[in-house]
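C-ALPHA CELLS:
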Amino acid sequence: MSQSLICAGVWFRYHRKGAWILQDFSHNFAAGITLIQGASGCGKSTLLRLLAGYLTPGQGHVTIPSGGPPTQPSFQRGSLGYVFQQLNLLPLATVERNLELAGRLGGISSKEIGARTARWLQLLGLEPFARRLPTTLSGGQQQRAAIARALVKEPQVLLLDEPTSGLDDLNTEVIACALRDYAAGGRICVVSSHDHRLATLADETLDFNRFLPLEGHLRALV
C-alpha cells in the first residue's frame, strides 16, 4: 500500500478530437501539502477532478493510496474531501447541518460527527454562524464553511480548487492554518491556486506552466 496519490502517464481531453489538456503527466502526490500553480486554462482544475475520480483519463491511470482507482465509492465517500470553486454548499441547510450530512455520507458515527463539526467550526472561525444558512454568509464565510465541510470527514485525501480566491489576508491565513493542521496528520492535500500568499504553506509546488500546454494567447506571457 502506497502513501501517495499517483498519476502515471495521464492524458486527458474533454472531446475525442479536441486538444489534450494533460499530456503524459506523471507525479506522486505524497503526504503533506502540494500547491499547483499556473495560468488559467493550463489544466489545474481538470487534474483535481481526475485525482478525485470525477473524470477518467484517456490514457494512463490514477492510483489512490489503497492501491485502487479514485472512482471507488468507498474512497469518494469516506476518504476524499473536495472543495469546488463553486463551493456547492446545500442552500437550505445550516452550516452545521452541511457538515453533519458530509460526516454521515462518510460513515462517521453521530458522536464523532458532533465532535468533528465543533472542532472544524472552531478552527475556521465559524462557531457564530453554525445555525445560519449559507446564503446569509459573506463570501469568505461561505468559503470557510465549504472547507470545514470537506474537513469534517478528516479524509485521507483533500483536494481544493482556488480555496482563497478573492479573500483578504486574514481569511486566507485562517484557511492556511486549518490546512496545516489537517496535513500534519500525514494526509495528502492538493491545492490548485493562483494565490501566491499560499506559497509558504506548500511542502511542494508544481508550476503547471512548465508541464502543460497553454492556450495560444497566453504563451507570450509565460
Observations:
- The beta strands are 5-12, 22-29, 32-37, 59-63, 80-83, 157-161, 188-192, 204-207.
- The domain at 5-221 is CATH 3.40.50.300 (Rossmann fold).
- Residues 58 and 153 are 30 Å apart (CA to CA).
